[in-house]
Amino acid sequence: MLRYVIPYRSIEYDGSNGKLRIYLKGDVRKYEYTLPIDQLKKKLPASSQPDFKSEPVIRQQLLLAHQIQQMLDSGRAKDLHQIAEWLGISKTRLEQLTNLLFLCPKIQEDIIYENSALLSNITERTI
Fold it and tell me: Which residues are registered as beta bridge partners of 14?
């Protein structure tokens, strides 16, 4: 498979009519394509989101703690209180969840990648 990287000036998409416009650097022309959105939607799987509900609870909690930390680090949230309001849970509960980030990296790695059956009986309290 050949792949060419072409520098572009801008890319625009108009969802109302399915038009994609590409403006290349050093080129005054615009390249316009019509995307068959209705046909593409039919080809998508019913759910594009992975089903995390089947994951062990401790894995869900650790992954949530990492997502919360990323939101704080990137500035998308100013503090745990703001995230707690968004999620509809107490700030204290969020602090409990983010305390999982203090586990050593090896334990966190085992929780994230280990066999789900082995983790099914592990809770925050037992850790």
Answer: 19
pTM given for the model: 0.58
> Is 58 within 8 Å of 114 (Cβ atoms)?
no
Same domain for 39 and 56: no
Contact assessment for residue 44 and residue 37, using Cβ atoms and an 8 Å cutoff: no
Residues 44-69: pLDDT tens digits? 566 555 666 778 889 999 999 999 99
Residue 34 CA to its chain's centroid (Å): 28
Q: Are residues 58 and 100 in the same domain?
A: yes
- Asked whether residue 59 is domain-assigned, the answer is yes
Cα-flanking dihedrals φ and ψ of residue 49, to 5°? Answer: -90, 135
> Same domain for 31 and 70?
no
Instruction: With CA atoms as reference, report the closest residue to 82 among 100, 65, 70, 94.
Output: 94
